[in-house]
Design a protein that fits this description.
- The protein has ten helices and 14 strands.
- It is α/β, with parallel strands linked by helices.
- Helix 5 crosses helix 6 and helix 6 runs parallel beside helix 8.
- 42% of the residues are buried.
């Protein structure tokens, strides 16, 4: 039964992949917006998206939206929402959020008003004057932007990018959701000959392997809503069984990772084992200058060190020149590189066949994709 809305926030630039993913999972009336996707929901969809989303950051129950130009409007708007649908008599309900470009600019003050309004609503519904808040939390999240308030309840807990396989990482790791999206944009196949020549902690390799074998990225972790009495345990059990039934662990995917740092090689292997994909990933120590294509087809995706991240700008640009020499245009092979450096194509020596603007944390980057039909040199 579909009788409420859900919101799935995402990194800017990933709204398209996320919307596509949600439709394939059966979500209804999917509407991409800036930094999030809104869709019609059900208890089953709460569990399914939490377990299976590769590109979303969390799953929120959308409670409502209304003008909030002053504290009275905020209080009345919050009190009118059906909080008792999800918050029980003894449930904890902490409040967090943000205010942007609005007359109400104090986050602590807005938190206090929202909390009081929810309490007043629940007092009337449960005929009590005091709430113990001893049961698992329903975290209320708000966004007040341009005097319009949006209220949600988080079902996820720790962000969906925290899959559980990367307890330790190398310096400046790429976010798991972004790595998964890069594999999506590069159309990594289930039988791919996949290579990451700067594997670091193995995030891109692992996300590509999980996608190729259709393994739900959240299958090994828990979520806030699993502790709620308002979502039946049978829903979670059924969705976990459904996710496992869709796995294709016999896929012919092979991922190869290289890195100069021996610790990165060991870490990638350890993380692949935690993620359950070590049987299809091979890792070894190798310099990018020694990169060689092997096989009739292959897909290369990498997040090389760059000036804002690990190397000085000159060293990063020299690295791009080396990549341009060893990533030879060849039928059946594709190469994709994420970088914030606008001079990348000039250093690499060829214009990308396609570019996408993405964000690696707070750093705006371009995702440069190269196929066989490469255009003439962009510069020296």
């Amino acid at each position: 039964m579909v009788d409420f809305q859900l919101v799935c926030p995402c990194l800017f630039g990933l709204e398209g992949p996320l919307a596509d993913e949600l439709r394939k999972m059966g979500a209804g009336h999917v509407r991409p917006e800036n930094g999030r996707v809104v869709f019609d929901g059900s208890e089953e969809m709460i569990a399914r998206i939490n377990l299976g989303s590769r590109y979303g950051e969390r799953v929120q129950i959308f409670m409502g939206s209304f003008p909030a130009r002053n504290f009275e409007e905020l209080f009345q708007g919050v009190r009118d929402l059906p909080w008792e649908r999800w918050i029980g008599r003894d449930s904890a309900f902490p409040v967090s959020g943000s205010c942007l470009d609005s007359r109400l600019s104090s986050v602590p003050a807005c938190q206090s008003i929202i909390k009081k309004a929810v309490v007043e609503r629940l007092k009337q519904r449960y005929s009590v004057s005091w709430f113990q808040e001893t049961e698992p939390p329903r975290k209320i999240q708000f966004l007040i932007r341009k005097d319009q308030a949006r209220l949600m309840i988080d079902t996820t807990g720790s962000g969906l990018h925290k899959r559980g396989y990367r307890a330790v990482s190398t310096a400046a790791p790429i976010r798991e959701t972004l790595a998964a999206a890069m594999a999506y944009f590069s159309r990594v196949r289930h039988d791919a000959n996949f290579i990451d020549p700067f594997c670091g902690s193995g995030t891109i390799l692992i996300e590509a392997a999980l996608a190729a074998q259709n393994i739900a990225p959240g299958i090994g972790r828990s979520f806030s809503a699993e502790q709620w009495d308002t979502v039946s345990p049978s829903v979670w059990k059924g969705e976990r069984e459904r996710a496992r039934s869709l796995e294709t662990r016999d896929a012919a995917f092979l991922g190869k990772g290289y890195d100069l740092d021996p610790d990165a090689v060991s870490l990638t292997q350890a993380n692949a084992e935690k993620a359950g994909v070590a049987d299809c990933i091979r890792v070894s120590r190798r310099d990018i200058a020694d990169f060689r294509e092997e096989g009739e087809y292959g897909c290369v995706i990498c997040n090389p060190p760059y000036g804002e991240r690990l190397l000085d700008l000159h060293s990063a640009q020299e690295l791009y020149k080396t990549m341009g020499r060893v990533f030879v245009p060849r039928h059946g092979w594709s190469y994709a590189v994420i970088s914030p450096d606008e001079s990348f194509e000039g250093c690499f020596g060829r214009r990308a066949a396609r570019r996408r603007k993405l964000y690696n944390g707070m750093i705006r980057c371009q995702y440069y994709m190269y196929f066989r039909e490469c255009s003439p040199k962009a510069g020296k």
